[in-house]
Amino acid sequence: MEAIKGHSEKSVLEYASDLRTFFRYMTKLKGLYSFDTDEEKIDLSPIDLEFIQSVKLEDAYEFMIYCKNVRQNNEATRARRVISIRRFYTYLTDNLGVLEKNPLKNLDIPKTKKSLPKYLTLDEAEKLLSVIEGKYKERDYAIITLFLNCGMRLSELVSIDYNDIKTDGTIVITGKGNKERTVYLNQACINAITAYLKVRPHDKVKDKALFLSSRNQRISNRSVQHIVETYIKKAGLGDRGLSVHKLRHTAATLMYQYGNVDVLLLKEILGHENLSTTEIYTHISDDATKKAVDSNPLSNEKPKW
């Protein structure tokens, strides 16, 4: 699926997991295994096209009931599972033509409640920046500043190399679906990165990663998550269910609220997949994008050291 759709590695892993869970349950439903069999002990290798074709619509709904009542999957997870299963059967039927009929063509996707994203207010964002201290304060400040100002994804930030930063204050990053986009660094980001590069280890460090761990290797996703969670608690915001991704929401919200940023422009800045069609972006200029990032009210923040 990664090659066909250009989805992220995370999406591909979720897709594979959904199909494994589905067919493991189907082997129980079809009597190949008892219902009390440990899922990890179920061998899926005997599953062939005949078995796949034998799955009926009512079987799929049995699976959804199982996901809700036994696995206690939420609406979003159940909806994702249905989408994965439907895409799989559609691909076998329409693309490969190895199935005569798609038995799950009419499988309904569960409706999900749309909730507003959690984000920090301007005061809370400034408070978060103000509590950063310690041995790695320059690095941590730069990390959180990039999240709050540019709305980067965690994987995008971790993958930055120091030589990716161009003299014009831009970075070309690879986002979801391996799509490249240009990120404009406002003055706050430039100040924070400059302060960090002054103390970033260079001697005997082979890794080109911008952000290094205590072992002088590219910092991991989990380490960044831990850093952000630590400072969120230190800022007295630990009861809000905030995370790295919520800092991305914060950047988008602050730009939209304070910068009068057009929604389409904002989605380009964030690199959202559902607006990847070229025509949507033709009227948005690079200058407008730079101004949008500069409009973030945190753009003039400076490190306190």
The radius of gyration computed from the alpha-carbon positions, rounded to a whole number of angstroms, is 23 Å
Count up the domains.
Answer: 2
The succession of helices and strands, N to C, reads HHHHHHHHEEHHHHHH
Q: Stretches where pLDDT falls below 50 for ≥5 residues?
A: 275-285
Shape: elongated
The CATH topology label of the largest domain is hpI Integrase, Chain A
The percentage of residues in β strands lies in under 5%
- Annotated CATH homologous superfamily of the largest domain: Intergrase catalytic core
Main sheet characteristics = 2 strands, antiparallel
Mean model confidence by pLDDT: 86
Percent helix range = 40-55%
For the record, what CATH class of the largest domain applies? Answer: Mainly Alpha
Please give the number of β-strands. 2
How far apart the termini lie comes to 48 Å
Structural class, by secondary structure, is mainly alpha
Helical stretch tally: 14
Strand line-up in the sheet with most strands: 1-2
Q: Do you know the CATH architecture of the largest domain?
A: Orthogonal Bundle
